[in-house]
Structures are given as structure tokens and as C-alpha cells.
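Practice problem 4.
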């Protein structure tokens, strides 16, 4: 599961794996801007076969927060 999560970040944002960690936050790197954010959201929805609520898309402010939000949709072990 964590591999799917990490791959969504790597592929959507076009970053190296070493950039991905619990400290990664929205708008802290150039790649995670508003367009990157929506690309990431779409990739996660596809990878985990879910549809985010609008509030969750807005609250998805960091790598760590994303794991919390996904747990709400039954995605565990991240």
C-alpha cells in the first residue's frame, strides 16, 4: 500500500523517491503547486479506487496528512 501511495507522489509530481517523507508539504516544493496537487489527487483516486470529498482535497496539505485522510476511506497500513 505504501508503495502505491509513494508512487502517486513520484509520478504526479515528477520527484525522486528521496523527496518523499512525512515532512513533505504542499507548496514547499515547486512541483507540489495547485496543478500538481490536482494531478496527485487524481492519481490517488485512481490508485486506491476512491473519490475524495472536496474538504479532503483541501485538507490534503502534506504527505503525512494524506495518509490520515486515506485512512478515512479504509486505506490502512500507510
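Answer key:
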Amino acid at each position: 500500500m505504501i508503495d502505491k501511495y509513494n508512487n502517486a507522489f513520484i509520478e504526479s509530481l515528477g520527484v525522486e523517491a528521496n523527496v518523499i517523507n512525512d515532512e513533505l508539504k504542499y507548496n514547499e516544493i515547486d512541483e507540489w503547486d495547485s496543478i500538481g496537487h490536482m494531478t496527485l489527487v487524481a492519481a490517488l483516486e485512481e490508485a486506491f479506487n476512491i473519490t475524495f470529498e472536496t474538504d479532503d482535497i483541501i485538507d490534503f496539505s502534506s504527505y503525512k496528512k494524506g495518509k490520515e485522510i486515506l485512512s478515512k476511506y479504509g486505506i490502512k497500513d500507510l
